[in-house]
Each structure stands twice: as structure tokens, then as C-alpha cells.
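Hi,

I'm pasting everything inline rather than attaching a file, because the server keeps stripping attachments. The sequence lines come first, and each chain or strand is labelled.
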Amino acid sequence: MPEPTLDALLHESRRFDPPAELAANANAQPSLYDEAARDRVAFWERQAQWLRWDTKWDTALEWEAPYAKWFVGGRLNAAVNAVDRHVEAGFGDKVAFHWVADGDTDRRTITYADLQREVAKTANALTELGVQAGDRVAIYMPMIPETIATVLACARIGAPHNVVFCGFSSDALKGRILDADARVVVTTDGQYRRGAPTPVKPAVDDAVADCPDVRHVLVVRRTGGDVQWTEGRDVWWHDVVDKQPDTHEAQAFDAEQPLFMMYTSGTTAKPKGILHTTGGYLTQVAATHRYVFDLKPDTDVYWCAADIGWITGHSYIVYGPLCNGATSLLYEGTPHPGDQDRWWKLVEEFKVTILYTAPTTIRTLMKWGHELLAPYDLSSLRVLGSVGEPINPEAWVWYRTYVGGGRTPVVDTWWQTETGAIMITPLPGVTSTKPGAAMTPFPGISADVVDNDGKPVPDGGGGFLVLTEPWPSMLRGIWGDDERYRETYWSRFDKTYFAGDGAKKDDDGDIWLLGRVDDVMNISGHRISTTEVEHALVGHPAVAEAAVVGATDPTTGQAIVAFVTPRGNVAEDESKGEAFVQSLRDQVAKEIGPIAKPRQILVTPELPKTRSGKIMRRLLRDIAENRELGDVTTLLDPTVTDMIRTNLSESAGGDGDGT
Ligand code: WT7
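And the predicted assembly:
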């Protein structure tokens, strides 16, 4: 299935109106836009009042570009907002999570009262391990209930968490632990992936070997079996957490208390620690969750099929749903060829009403065929969400037709790790949607599409997506690198946030996202920078030079294609061998993680460069996508491209081992 061309996108004329009943009862009515337009800040203040504040703020917003402070003077506790206040309101027996293990080999039902006790015990344990407010805690864990307890325990004691996706390598983990200067790491002995146990702790052991300031590693026993143990440093969860008292007195923190950092790829080799704080973040994740998914806490069963290791998991598995008192399904596994109908079994059994996932997953399910869905009753579903990358109209329509039975609104939500919460999205009871468009800014959000000079483009025009006013859940900076914060987001346009995405306004002024305009790739909704992969490749002793591009891929959105020049001492037949290519792929997996392994690696004696020595990435992308080459007159040696093309046609495709 080819990606839509820009032209096809803009000629997409199908419209889907909200179902009448949903519209009539929706949390968000059209007046929400008017209300927010009248006074943006007052709108957010009203949203903030859904939370429990120990002390109310005096000033809603202090804005001195590019630094925002929201709800200044206010004090609150994030974990109390997510858990305790629901128990106090009489909802202790309500299910917070139906947890289903990978492949449905185990299950746990966790009520709000259970969660309150687990969080209290974990908070007491972290305190016993010496963690104090302000200390960073790294979390490297699979999708199990203890991960959520750990995240909330950190929040409860004011210790910013730094969750690192379990698919990252020990090198990547080490970089994040060191950069965040985390003192405690929480992990598991192993995890289940596609039905099989795989180790987790060895990656932590390797990482922490070079992190002298890590005092403790707290380990949940998940898979059993032998683990290496460092006495004094390593402690078992069942020894330390289980014996703790199950109550914990929470302290209120400043609205701007750092809540967490989340590392994400930028255009350099070093990931950025995106910093989020408490009051504004919780306000916006809860409000967007309530309105974008039309959450009715008493009747909905909500399922966000992301991983807690990414921002989507933070905002829409943990904080948003819990602040709203939702009941969620938490599934540990991911769809894979050996377990193709698991999702539909789960939707039927748990009567899931709201499903939130990524286009890459939708395309995978689509590839397996809609016949797989037919035996299951999916009629409970009433809102479907998409996030992570542009969704092609075909996948959008398939999602609505086969998963949503042709009834459900599809909300395509655009946002980023940096924005913390949804920014551009339809509202399910209000917006007449267009397949493939994120449509309009959420109430209280100011977004635009501008040209090179920062001028808004007219309807029908394309350019760069920008955010023109501060928003409550915006990043507060890059951990330890203020210069990079200003440079990355605020230097391109004056007092305006540059998102790094290309976008288009259609004739009605609705927004279509067109993908990144920088050197960031989007692989299955995961953000990976070309420089990061290049850096990993040149770390291989036999590599002289490497260039990496994102090529369009029918399933993963983009796929990584690497062009590699071997060092002079590498024999030609060796460099052409499969073993060499495999060693390069392994090198990337080691430095970053399996998610960053190139789909294809082209070994070539030269890379195409301009006369000034710049690698011509656009040309490489054209080669990778097999397009006709554009203007190559500035190329130093035009024969290089022919040479690469010849090598390309000779080389075999990669294993595409994405996740
Ligand atoms: C980048 C942010 C937001 C959580 C998951 C990814 C792309 C995200 C959409 C969408 C088109 C999208 C953008 C953005 N993106 N959602 N609905 N339509 N593109 O978070 O890893 O910080 O990546 O993902 O390119 O900049 P992230």
C-alpha cells in the first residue's frame, strides 16, 4: 500500500459527521471553542479546577518567552490527584486497570484502593532507599502494574521519574541515567515478549557499571530465573516494597515541581531530556483526555495501547486517565504474527469503548485482513484515536470501517513529547472529520502553519507547523541544556515554538500533518534521529563514513536506510558480505536498541556530496525510495549515484526487525 501523495491527501473529500447521539451527550460541545477563544488563560484555569489543589494559584500564567510558568503559587500532589482523591470520593472499589499479561498468560485487576496501597508502599520503599524530593529515578520496566506504581510513587514524593523504554539498549540507558544523574534505577529481572521470557536486568547491570552515582537498583521479579546480583546495590522489590506500610502521607508540591523527564531524539546524536512539571501538565492531559476521547468515567473502558516508556504512555495511560478516574485496560503485549486476533478478543471481553493506538499498528492489523475481526463483537467501541505519525486516509477509513463498525469517530491527535499533551485534534462530538487530517487546535491552543519568514500561510498553503502561544503542558526545558532548548524550538521564529513538522492548511483552514522537516525519522511512531544512527554506525571499527535517511515504508511509516562507506583496510568482498552488514546492524542495536536497526544498509565506496562537502541526503532518500533523481548538478561526482544505485539493486533487504 503506497503512502498517499500530497496531492491525493488534498483531494481527499470524504467527511464523517459525529454520530448524533454521541454529539448530543459529548463532554465537549461546540461552545468549548468559543469559551476558550474568549479568554484562553481563563479557559485553562477552569480546566485546572478539575484537579485537587492544596493551595490555589495566584497567577495563572507567567510568560517570558521561551519560559512559561503555569498556575504560579499553586500547590498539589500528582499522585493524590491520580489516585487518592478518587478513593476518598468513594471510588476505591472502582477498577483503575484491568491488567492482561503478554499473550494473556496472567491477569490482575487493580482498583483505585489497590493502587493507592501499592503507590504508598512503593513511595515508602523509595524513601527508605534514600530518594528525596528532587532526586531523579530511572525506570526501565515492561508494561506491568509495578511500573505504574513506581511512576506514581516518584510523583508522590516529588522525585522526577525518567522512564526509559525497555527496547533501548544498555548504552542508551546509561546515557539517560548519566544525563539525568539518577540515583536509583527500578527494573525487572526479565520481561515477556511474544510469549517468551527475555532478560532485562543485564542491560541495567551493564549500564550501571559506568554510573558510579547510582546507589540502588530495585528489581521486580517478573520472569524468575537466575540474575546477577550486586550486594548492597541491588534490592528485590518483594524484600523492600512488600514489607512497607500501605499508607503514605503525601506532601503538596509547587505547580512547577519537575514531574518527569523523557528523553527523545533530536537532530544531534545526543537525546534531549524533555522536562515536564506538575500543575499545567496534569491540567492539560486530564482535559484533553476528557474531551478528545469523550471519557465517561462511570461507563467507559479505555484502552491506550502504547508503552509507558513513551510520552503517550505517560500522558494517556497513567496521568490523564487516572486524574479522570477512568477504568483502563493495560495490555503487556504487542500485536505480532503469532497472535493476530488478541486485540479483538480483548476488546470483546472487556467491552472496550475507547481505543487509542498508532497508524503503524493500524496498518499492520489491516495487512492481516479485516476477516480476523469478523468473529468478534466490537460494538462496545465508540471512539477511536490515532497518534504518533501522519495517518494515511486508507488506514483511517479502514480503522473506522472495520474496527469502528462504521459508527465511531476517529480522532487523529497531533502532539509531541515536548507538548506533553494533545494539541491538534478533532473533538468526537463536534468535528466533522476528514480521513488523514488532525483538523484543528484543541480549545485553548494556538497553532498555525507559517512560511520561511514566519508568516501564516493562507488556506490551501503549506509550511511549518508552529505553536504561537504557551500552553499548560509545554516542556519547561531540556534537562541541563538551556541553550539547546532555545536553539531547537525558539530560534527559528520569534517567540514562537517550532515543532519540526511540515503541515498544510486545506481550503477550509483545517490542518494536515506532513511529517518532519528536520533530520528526525519516525519509525513506527518512534522518533529516531538520522545523526544518532550515523553516530552508532561510525562507531563500528570498519566504518569510515555513514549517512542515514528515512525512506517511506508501507507499514512502519518510515524505515531507516543507511549508506555506509567502509574504511580502506576492509576488503571489498568482505564489505559486501552479509556478515559485515549484520555486524553493522548489531552495532546500531547495541548503541541505541533494536528499534533503530536499519531496514537496509548499503555499502558503497563513496557518498554523494555537494561541492562544499555536504552529504546530499535528499538524493540518498530518492535513491532509497527509488525515485527519479532531481537536480544533481551541485554533486561533486555524479557517477557516485550510479554506483550507489547499482549496489542498492544488488543488496538484499534488511530483516526489518522494528520493535
Ligand atoms: C512527532 C512527535 C505524540 C506522542 C507520540 C509521538 C509525529 C505525532 C502525529 C499525528 C502526524 C504526528 C510528529 C511529531 N506525530 N502525532 N497525529 N499526525 N504526525 O511523540 O516521539 O515526541 O514524536 O510525531 O512528527 O513531531 P514523539
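Residues 652-659 have pLDDT under 50 and may be disordered.

If the labels don't parse on your end, tell me and I'll reformat.
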